[in-house]
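User: Teach me something about this protein's shape.
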Amino acid sequence: MTNGKTGTWRNWAGNVRARPAREVTPASVEEVASAVRRAAEDGVRVKAVGSGHSFTSVAATDGVLIRPDLLTGIRRIDRAAMTVTVEAGTPLKRLNLALAREGLSLTNMGDIMEQTVSGAISTGTHGTGRASASIAAQVRGLELVTADGSVLACSAKENPEVFAAARIGLGALGVITAVTFAVEPLFLLAAREEPMDFDRVTAEFDELVTENEHFEFYWFPHTENCSTKRNNRSAGPARPVGRIPGWIEDELLANGLFQAVNVLGRAAPATVPALAKVTSRALSARGYTDVPYRVFTSPRRVRFMEMEYALPREAAMAALRELRSTIERSGLRISFPVEVRTAPADDITLSTASGRESVYLAVHLFRGTPYREYFTAAERVFTAHAGRPHWGKVHTRDAGYLAGVYPRFGEFTALRDRLDPDRRFGNDHLRRVLGD
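Assistant: First, the predicted structure itself:
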């Protein structure tokens, strides 16, 4: 295990900074446990970080910062049980590539794969799916170092009350050191991307979700234009995006042109509506068939700030229309599309889809653009529909609000009181969202 003083830690978006008293880079669960015990002896708090893709200060600490750089790789593949156990610091990208080489895959995933597996599940990272849920919902077991340095194994059969909560635990219950995922034989997904106007996609939303295994769309504010994507399993053959067309669509247009448009829009906000009409028409219809991680995920090189709320499915399209009206009335200039995804209900204590079928509405702004007015207006719409904020994205909600939209909120906080009574894994952010 390497130890030492460090400078400032920053997250991916650059909006969160922390100056830990020291950093440690453990190479085993035993070294993680040792670091936690030493933090307790020194009377300081301890937090594990992932790749920093959360927009909140959920991982910030002035105590001991645990980096997972050496906790990577696959521990075990159980083909009889169809599970894979990986070290907690393994990036999703590395996991997806390794699984594909073994002829295996996760069932569903988010739209990027830069996060570590522990960071992704701890904050509720998700994609879109009619019947397949978040990454955390695919977890079958966890290894957790608790506040006294003990190593706790949990699953649906072993310490089930901890398992129910720790899959999306915000780092509040302990340090995850290994994750066991359910996997399945590698399969093919056929993707269909096409433009669709706002009124049609919102009117046909329930039908589009019902008819497709994975449906999502982006609406470009100041326009009636939406970009839709449908992913469904395919018997093949594979027809991946060609190298040159892929570079044009995913790098030149979706990243290069989009970056330039956002830089211009930030400098001259009055140009944003006209630019939105250009960018919303830049991506044409296309179809392709490939292995899951190449279909679910895309490169995201334009940095931004993001807020996302999970709403009851039956309220989502009304909320999206309210958001559109809010933008039109406000005079705001929004250069980033609004992203819409779905999830089935799950049984994880603090999952944003816990106990209810959900639709996610995500709003973004280019990094460096003032975002508070837009996000405040959007949050007002979302909370009016009992929205649940994504745990890793910007929001202003506190424990009082969250206890009202999560029926099992008290179950989580009681477990936290038992596992971490001294708040060894606490910080200011967790005090706000979980109470103390």
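Now, about its shape. Residues 243-267 form the longest helix (25 residues). The CA atoms of residues 6 and 224 lie 49 Å apart. If you'd like, I can walk through any region in more detail.
User: That's plenty for now, thanks!
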